Amino acid sequence: MSKKGILERLAEGPVIGDGGFVFALEKRGYVKAGPWTPEACVEHPEAVRQLHREFLRAGSDVMQAFTFYASDDKLQNRGNVAQDKYSGRSINKAACDLAKSVAAEGDALVAGGLSQTPTYLSGLGKEATQKEFRHQVEVFVQNGVDFLIAEYFEHVEEMEWAIEVCLESKMPVAATMCIGPEGDLHGVSVGECAVRMARAKADIVGLNCHFDPEVELEGLRLMKAALDKEGLKPYLMAQPLAFKTPDTNKQGFIDLPEFPFGLEPRICTRFDMHKYARDAWELGVRFIGGCCGFEAYHIRAIAEELSAERGGKLPAGSEKHIQWAGGLKMHTKPWVRARATREYWENLRPASGRPYCPSCSKPDAWGITQGSEVLKQHKEETTSEELKLSKKSLQCNGDS
């Protein structure tokens, strides 16, 4: 029997996405921080396969191929050696094979994903940028994925170019930007970005990455209002961070001094994810997943929260987990048994255990966008002198 497609599933109820791959695999020693490219699909396929499997067991309905930043230009950008060792085509194909193999173990769909490019940031224009997208989409079509996701775009102009290429595949298209309530990095409002994505014919529009669930849902409320005003009705999608970001600015968590190696104190609890899932559903979001920082237990919390909306369906990963900490009733310590309630965990204010740490940070003053000299693509690793110039540029932006 053929599986229901993504649009059929969204029409029936919530679709649960998966979680973050680059951060999870970097922590496990398979991805290089900085380039964040997915050559692990070729070098360590079993690590990627296992992470897919964990998300499937946690309740994910979609196995998104690990093709983040797998465009040829990104694979060779700023000292990354991936393109010298493997072709973009080989990495994208391996990612599709891994996602398909795990999806076949359950009732999951496979999505091919593409993201923003150094070609666009370098100001090389539409034709060159779309060439990079087309290389990836051709692989996705040849390998029979179920739909496409254009994600992690900071500029709606580049997103429109990506959607245009994705539509050539004749597959459903989801489009999510890594922006917040302040809009894209060219000053386009978040609502206008949603309208432009919908008018570009994306079937699903929304936000991913850069911000936590609360901030991202704030952005999605603005998106929904703008779409409703224009009479546009795409499905809404959310895949936020699993890190708390109340103190970020327009660029999101990349501007935090803790990025990327000190973010653990900001991690959301599974009970934060129950709230996120419920708030997203009530807002009208139908594709609900996660991005950087999301682990399998976060996805399981989403699937458990929305079990009723999914016909009572629970993930395999809930077999050993009694919802709302019910398993703690069997603990030997009475004060731990007393925590076996939903009320306890929903009202907990977790401590960090770090007495001298502030509750929030001062983000770096990011003010650089597409077309800037410091963003132009080059193969050579950034030199010490260039690092000094970058720091000086950021300081000047902050002073202004």
Quick recap of the structure?
Helix content is 41%, strand content 9%. By secondary structure, the protein is of the alpha/beta class.
Descriptive key words:
single chain, 400 residues, alpha/beta, 17 helices
Describe this structure in words.
The structure is a single chain. By secondary structure, the chain is an alpha/beta fold. It has helices at 6-12, 22-27, 40-43, 45-58, 72-75, 82-85, 88-103, 118-121, 126-142, 156-167, 190-199, 213-229, 270-283, 296-305, 334-337, 342-346, 384-399, and strands spanning 15-16, 62-64, 109-114, 147-151, 173-177, 204-208, 235-239, 285-288. An eight-stranded parallel β-sheet has the order 1-8-7-6-5-4-3-2. Helix 11 (190-199) links the parallel strand 5 (173-177) and strand 6.
What is the number of beta strands?
8
Amino- and carboxy-terminal Cα gap:
61 Å
Estimate the helix proportion, in percent: 40-55%
**Series of secondary-structure elements, N-terminal to C-terminal:** HEHHHEHHHEHHEHEHEHEHEHHHH
Q: What's the arrangement of strands in the largest beta sheet?
A: 1-8-7-6-5-4-3-2
Q: How many DSSP H or I helices?
A: 17
Low-confidence stretches: 396-400
Summing up helix and strand content along with how strands pair, one would put the structural category as alpha/beta
Largest sheet: 8 strands, parallel
Query: Oligomer, anyone?
Result: single chain
**What does the radius of gyration come to?**
21 Å
Average pLDDT number: 93
How much β-strand is present in the residues? 5-15%
Shape: globular
